[in-house]
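Bug #77: duplicate submission created two jobs. Keeping one. Sequence:
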Amino acid sequence: MNNIRIFLLASFLMIIFSFFPHPLFASDDQTPSGIPLSELETSIDDYVAPFIGNTTAGASVLVLKNHDIVFSKGYGFSAIEDQLPMQPEQTIMEWGSISKLFVYVAAMQLVEEGKLDLEEDITTYLPEDFLTKLSYDKPLTMLHLMHHTAGFEEYIFDVGFGSSDRVTSLEEGLQLAEPHQVYPPGEVVAYSNYSTSLAAYIIECITSEPFYEYVEENIFQPLGMTQTVIHPTFEGNEELLTNKAKGYIASEPAEFIEADWLYMSLYPSGSINGTAENLAAFAQALLPADGEISPLFEKEETLEAFLSQSYTANDQASGIAHGMWEYPGASRGLTHGGNTTSFSSNLHLVPEEDFAVIILTNQAGELDINYGLTALLVGEKDQLNLADNLPSTGEVEGSFLPARRPHHSFISLYFYLMPYHVTTIQENEIQISYAGLTANYRQTSPYVYEMMEGDSFFHSMKNLTFQVEDGKVAQISTAISDYLPYPAGKTPPFLMIHVVLAIICVLFFLICPIILLVKSIKNRKRKMKRMSIWPSILIMSGTATVINVVILAARLLTKYERAYAEIAFQVMLNSIFSGIAIVSMILLAWQWRRARLTRAHKVGYSVSIGMSAMLIALLTIWHFYS
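Kept job's structure:
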């Protein structure tokens, strides 16, 4: 009778819990967002379906739970033309900036061995005078490199290439692409490929072996990652190229253009190629089973330190854990995405839930699956109650520039023309807009805002912390990048003036050659005295400069992964044409004093000199000569 009662009670409880699952009983059988593992495939299939073949060429999706792969599936094609299916266990794709995590793991291995101090000035590990563009005396540390707070500007040249013939050694690549240090170390988060590659070079200096060999020996081999290669040209692993997916750019819905693979001299920042299942082996090593030590480290404490928060701008907001971004989901997440010219990816860990999501796509700039699907699986943080007496949202309104931008290149102009706008929606709610994309945020504590809804583009900046000084925003902090006010002299009103002046210059130097040609023909027919040559040279030099700048901009917009050597000649032409213009202005001014000029000539010469001087000034301000 007792056995029957126990059986009936157990049966009753099983029925109850099947209808009303409790986290204590269901957490091992569901995602952090609450999706039962039994429904995982259906949920992922339904989410992915609208994007594959429409906005995304193909994707490998893999989910880990309790140290096991509970879902692994390919969607779409690895090669559209050949209709080759995507296979997570076989298809090799570019991981992009997920590669950076291997630099940070390698650094933690050396910390564990006592060979590296994360808070030591990195110049003690580098060759003497290796860095030549530092602007601040404050020590620069490995932690600064991990947090992207080293203060480096963005430098887009000589980082990635569309062919392997331009790839150099890591040391040469760092020297060729060294950026200026434009912020004091530790004060501004400005995402930097250079920082991570410099960290990898420090590891080379400490270990006396190429970084790719170190990773192969100390990470790939222990984890059995035989379908992964970090060498930028696949040296020694050329056979893996046969399984590499083609990369694509979406031109229009359901239309894809094949794009170049990416080759990098600064390869530690984004050159790993591998399968989704090999990346899963890495994720598993970061989420060891209870009682086990990660095969990446000798001590449990090293992994705990690596996954712990090491930087935050505000205790109420997410920060950085030694190079991984904290994500405020249903449970604390650690994540890092990756983008190359034709691939994009996302790795998301939830240590508390022993859960991970891995997404690799052969689609440039893919957001919906990489971030939208991840958000579906990891869940959102519960909305917090608003604190009392919160500051007015009007204090944080304005336009801001990303800290990650060039400062000493004409490319900086693009960032000034595409700022982030902050506007008030209602009390304690703001909207961030950028390039037609928007996200809404709610203030939860003084000057700390959490994203409520918005485009997938903003998923990497779920928290915003506004640093307000004297009633004005001095800095907006997020885990992945900070945003800053316009610098003095380049605020929107000044910028609009520059834009108007630039348009006037362009129109002047495109129209004037036509006028000169017509005048020359008329004078020849009437057998009139030939005009002075210097006004014509002055105008033609300006016209040549304008055309050269337009071509230069078009080349970079169509393909930005270039060596500086590819555009150096055009940059030099700007200097040559401007030099000719200056000589012409001097000779024209000298002729003005010696010759008797009509009022019309004086006006024409004055306008030509003024327009040439204006063009040269604009090119100087926006760094078109360097």
